[in-house]
Automatic annotation (TrEMBL):
Residues 142-169 form a coiled coil. It is found in: Cell inner membrane; Membrane. This is Magnesium transport protein CorA. NCBIfam families: corA (TIGR00383). The gene is corA. It is a multi-pass membrane protein. It comes from Ancylobacter radicis. Keywords: Cell inner membrane, Cell membrane, Coiled coil, Ion transport, Magnesium, Membrane, Transmembrane, Transmembrane helix, Transport. InterPro entries: CorA_cytoplasmic_dom, CorA_MIT, CorA_TM1_TM2, Mg/Co-transport_prot_CorA, MgTranspt_CorA/ZnTranspt_ZntB. It holds the Pfam family CorA.
Length: 324
């Protein structure tokens, strides 16, 4: 689907471009969302550029993601999508600046796009350019990453309290299984946010490099430097959160080991406590003909008492030494 945004009546208005075209000549922003076959050729013919394929967008080489070709600037970054859902994903998004117009190519719906669209469709400057629009999107992307990190930090704090809650009364096996599942989800989201920030930092560095910012004004260059600092700071913070998640994982596994050791200790104590009674029962179960105790009237109850005492004494010793 192709949506062309044009400045009309002091705001950006979106128009769906039919499969047969044409693209409006005054389109400032051409947004390609999951383009169908032939739609990329329509944009290529209208703007005289090459639109990258989905396979080219996910390549990790910087030369494939960041380049200048025939006067057009190609920028591809990874954005976190569905961060509020159980399974967030990373989706590649391409930005193409050509002749002060912006083309975006995406296969998912990142929240920053919806926010920028909602804001500009309510009002925008009549002199808005593709470069300014790109800066609006980049700023919204960094803000969204910051929001995700803040929410992730709050969730990690809550998770930490749950892990070290000594008053929990739920089944421990189910509790630890749930905690490990939650830790895995937080670690996955944190790694995706960090990867997204790294890709965006590369875009900022590429735009800020000498000779590649001719289309940007001084104010936009200053805003770009601010975005670089924000991306670096957020990357450091999410790395710290990653270390904290690793600590919580180690702590949870340590608690699981303690629980397992407690179970094993119970079996070990039972083995020691029951060993002397078993020995006494084994002796008097041999049934030899000449065993004086077999002829005693009180032999049987005395054997039972001996077995009971033999079990109580080791247990008392364990309690006295605080091994239990």
């Amino acid at each position: 689907m192709i949506t062309a945004y044009c400045i009309r009546n002091g705001a950006l208005q979106g128009f769906d471009v039919p499969a047969e075209g044409p693209v409006p000549p005054d389109a400032l922003w051409i947004d390609m969302l999951r383009p169908a076959s032939g739609e990329d050729a329509l944009v290529e013919a209208a703007l005289g550029i090459g639109v990258p394929t989905q396979a080219e967008m996910v390549e990790i080489e910087p030369s494939s993601r960041l380049r200048i070709e025939n006067g057009a600037i190609y920028l591809t970054g990874s954005l976190v999508c569905r961060a509020d859902e159980e399974r967030p994903i990373l989706s590649a998004v391409s930005f193409i600046l050509v002749n002060h117009r912006l083309v975006t190519l995406r296969y998912d719906e990142p929240k920053p796009f919806r926010l920028v669209m909602a804001r500009l469709t309510h009002g925008c400057s009549a002199t808005l350019t593709g470069e300014q629009l790109l800066m609006e999107l980049l700023d919204a992307i960094v803000d969204r990453a910051a929001d995700i990190i803040e929410h992730l930090s709050e969730q990690i704090e809550a998770l930490s309290e749950r892990i070290f809650d000594r008053e929990a009364r739920t089944d421990q096996n189910q509790r630890y299984r749930a905690l490990l599942n939650m830790i895995a989800r937080k670690a996955d989201l944190g790694s995706k946010v960090r990867e997204s920030l790294v890709s965006m930092a590369r875009i900022f560095t590429f735009l800020a490099a000498e000779g590649e910012t001719k289309a940007l004004s001084k104010d936009q260059k200053a805003a770009l430097k601010s975005l670089q600092r924000d991306a670096t700071s957020l990357t450091d913070h999410v790395s710290y959160l990653g270390d904290k998640i690793t600590f919580l994982l180690d702590a949870t596994l340590g608690l699981v080991s303690i629980e397992q050791n407690n179970i094993i200790k119970i079996f070990a104590v039972l083995s020691v406590v029951l060993m002397p009674p078993t020995l006494i029962a084994s002796i008097y179960g041999m049934n030899f003909e000449h065993m004086p105790e077999l002829a005693l009237t009180w032999g049987y109850p005395l054997a039972l008492i001996a077995m009971l005492v033999a079990a109580i004494v080791p247990y008392w010793i364990f309690k006295w030494r605080r091994w239990l």
